[in-house]
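Saturday, quiet lab. Running sequence design on the structure tokens for the scaffold JK sent over.
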């Protein structure tokens, strides 16, 4: 299926990486159109990476956290009641679950926060003054903003965080703040007060944006300067700004370099502009209970071998295939991954070995040996370039299939996750109007 779409860009970034100026995009001026995406552990990130060694080692370190991420996504997909982890102050540095950050401003005047971008979470959250367990030096100060206001239990927005559980407000009237708890990852949680203030992305200012003002943190995985939620629940960016925005797109930077910079674009359809044809595939049954970016993956071609795909989307169990920016390498349920891996091994015709988290590695002296991997969605074929299929060691002598099996240690193992490594150097469009996703090749960096 193809969508003829024309959009009026509200925040447009077209970036070509140069060593001298790629990181300067993160400190752009207030009148800039640029909203950069950078690796959270890369050269341009404001955070200190816990990983030492090569960028290859860093990517492996990030990917080792994927099983926890996938299990957390499986719980979200099934809409299980989220675990109530006690809010205990953290005494160790955050090892946060997030791959990419964007520069945003909260409040009036705007206070700069480098937020993790997450396509599988709906809420925007920021650490606020007085937070227990928040270790970042960047804390949003509500008292310094002239437009900040907290929301109480009577506000209609107070229903948003509790669509899948009990509403914790035990009273009515302005003296009862709207406080909610959420988990993030497998072992972390936070408590936040629902609030409103101006959110600035690039040069666009969105007043009265509803977000969570974090009061307490437990665990190591809460993004230290907050999170920008890009899924489809009521608290998400597109839902709150549906009068101004009807789409967003992102282009994730290359994993080949820790200094690469990608881009985030926000926009609305405009029939007056020249149309651009973008191949799209439908999003599945977005409802108040299902907000992840589900696509209908029908098969996977490995060279000339077609691997059929299951499970199909199931609203009751959360089974299916999603796009996610904070999982590093694509994870398929065990039978699908085994079929893909075996077809790949057979076609390269070389002996393979395991290395770290990868089980299909080989000497990479002949690039022509690599079979093309294509993900077949309804109406769209996502053809993976070699650099999105393989990950190479630092010296280039070893190549590994950059995919793995989804964790299978409990009943939740029914979710395929198309991860950020496979999305690099493609622009991913998410259209709210007809609930579809477009995928177009683009050199993001």
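Result came back. Writing it out in full:
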């Amino acid at each position: 299926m193809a969508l003829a779409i024309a959009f009026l860009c509200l925040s447009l970034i077209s970036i070509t990486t140069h060593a001298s100026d790629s990181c300067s995009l993160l400190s752009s001026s207030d009148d800039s159109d640029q909203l950069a995406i950078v690796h959270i552990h890369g050269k341009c990130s404001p955070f200190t990476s816990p990983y030492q060694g090569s960028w290859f080692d860093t990517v492996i370190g990030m990917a080792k956290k994927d099983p926890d991420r996938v299990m957390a996504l499986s719980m979200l997909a099934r809409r299980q009641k989220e675990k109530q982890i006690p809010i205990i102050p953290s005494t160790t540095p955050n090892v946060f679950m997030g791959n990419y950050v964007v520069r945003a401003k909260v409040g009036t005047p705007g206070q700069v926060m480098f937020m993790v971008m997450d396509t599988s979470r709906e809420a925007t959250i920021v650490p606020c003054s007085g937070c227990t367990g928040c270790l970042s030096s960047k804390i949003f100060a509500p008292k310094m903003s002239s437009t900040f206001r907290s929301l109480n239990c009577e506000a209609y927005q107070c229903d948003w965080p509790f669509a899948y559980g009990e509403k914790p407000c035990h009273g009515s009237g302005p003296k009862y703040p709207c406080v909610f708890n959420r988990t993030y990852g497998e072992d972390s949680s936070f408590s936040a007060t629902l609030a409103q203030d101006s959110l600035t992305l690039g040069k666009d200012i969105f007043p009265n944006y509803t977000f969570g003002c974090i009061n307490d943190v437990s665990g190591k995985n809460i993004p230290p300067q907050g999170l920008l939620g890009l899924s489809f629940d009521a608290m998400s960016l597109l839902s709150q700004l549906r009068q101004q925005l009807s789409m967003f797109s992102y282009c994730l930077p290359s994993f080949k370099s820790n200094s690469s910079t990608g881009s985030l674009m926000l926009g609305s359809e405009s029939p007056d502009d020249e149309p651009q044809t973008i191949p799209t595939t439908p999003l599945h049954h977005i409802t108040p209970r299902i907000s992840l970016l589900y696509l209908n993956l029908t098969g996977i071609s490995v060279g000339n071998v077609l691997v059929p795909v299951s499970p199909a989307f199931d609203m009751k169990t959360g089974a299916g295939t999603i796009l996610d920016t904070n999982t590093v390498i694509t994870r398929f349920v065990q039978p699908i991954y085994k079929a893909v891996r075996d077809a790949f091994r057979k076609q390269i015709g070389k002996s393979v070995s395991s290395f770290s988290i990868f089980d299909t590695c080989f000497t990479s002296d002949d690039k022509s040996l690599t079979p093309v991997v294509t993900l077949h969605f309804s109406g769209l074929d996502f053809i993976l370039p070699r650099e999105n299929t393989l990950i190479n060691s630092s010296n280039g002598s070893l190549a590994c299939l950059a995919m793995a099996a989804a964790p299978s240690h409990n009943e939740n193992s029914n979710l395929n996750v198309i991860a950020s490594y496979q999305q690099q150097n493609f622009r991913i469009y998410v259209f709210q109007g007809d609930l579809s996703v477009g995928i177009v090749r683009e050199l993001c960096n």
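Notes for JK: Residues 250 and 264 are 4 Å apart (CA to CA). Confidence is low (pLDDT under 50) at residues 4-20, 80-95, 271-275. Ask whether to fix the surface positions before the next round.
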